[in-house]
Sequence to fold (459 residues):
Amino acid sequence: MTVWTVVGMILALSAIVGVSVYSGRKVKNADEFDKGGRSAGALMVSGAVMGTLVGGSSTVGTAQLAYTYGLSAWWFTLGAGIACVILIFFVAPVRRTGRATLVGIIADKYGEKTGVAASLLSSVGTFINILSQLISATAIISIVFPKTPRSAEFFIAAAFMIIYVIFGGILGAGMVGTVKLLLLSATAIFGGVLALPLSGGFGALYSTLPHSQYFNLFARGIGTDGGAALSLIFGVLSTQSYAQAIMSGRSDSAARGGALISAAVMPVIGAGGILVGLYMRVSRPELASAKTAFPEFVLSKMPPLAAGIALATLFITVLGTGAGLSLGISTMIRNDLIKKKTRKFDDPKKGLLLSRGIIIVVLAAAAAVCVCPVGDTILNFAFMSMGLRGAVVFAPLCCALWLGDRVKPGFILAAIIAGPLFVLVFGLIKVLPFDPLFIGMAISFILCAAGTVGNGKKI
Fold:
């Protein structure tokens, strides 16, 4: 750490704090907090999508897994990119409903019980991903401030996440996400470009590292890595945060454009993280923790001013994802649970206060959980979270958008409960040679299909 490193960090963090406060001044009520008044252009939509999607898992977590397994770490950003392409086909149907949440769309068609179950289970899946962002944040804090107690690192990270989103909601996430998108793309590309010649070129990496492990997209097995890719695809299409980004667009075309920009940029960011992870594996095989591969590379190999900007960018990246996920949970709890039980928060200002309060509680709870020994493999939490969300929401959402009342509500409720239950149980006992998401999604689709039988309505 030098003076110029600190200057670079202050410059990047100041820009983000300034944009956060500015966006907060434009938000007057809960609807603007949730959907940004539907005024965002394509770049802002992309900023909101990537502000949440491209976080610690895409950068610090990708470099961590690449350090251990190589190219199979690319599945997070590849899967996310594929999901954003598919997301284009959901833009018009989702926006046409006028609902603030994906769960609300399901509940409109299949009743309040399905909405409550989907909201609770989807929130659990989203909460798990917040844990991965907090772990990523501590990887950076521990490098910059090595004497900080581990438990304090989690609460410091949570406090920054609260500041990131609590002022501007989805509008703030979009504005800050756009700035972050530019900084992060520059950091990842610069890191990858710098790591490649330092390694002696791709040929040197290829000749040094075992091919079957480090240059194989399915190094952990097709069942595991294929399941990881599907977890990303189903998870992105089923997550409230990304739906909110799409809803914030001023038009369907702006929303589609934002999804396409995200799809194009994410795999490039992932490639930069992989090159950094591979270089660190060759040059620093003795790292105490693989999760510090990216921040240690930045601090030791980049020019001081650039290193400071890059470290702050990585930190902001992690904050943005955790903050955006907490915003998604807040929106679901307020719209799909609390507003169903009381009209006390119908007042726009009270609703805004409630949303911000939920965000604070969610992030504080996540920090408290992380203090417990939950492990620190970032992408493990990210993949599990995406799989759970996909198993809860994806099939019922497709039914709500395209089949409507041609599916019996009882079967939708069964799918919402059984799908994630199978994912969670088999994910914990680990007796299957493939990702349990395959079973969870199969159960969900089978139950939804069974719900169309004998209802007297044509599909």
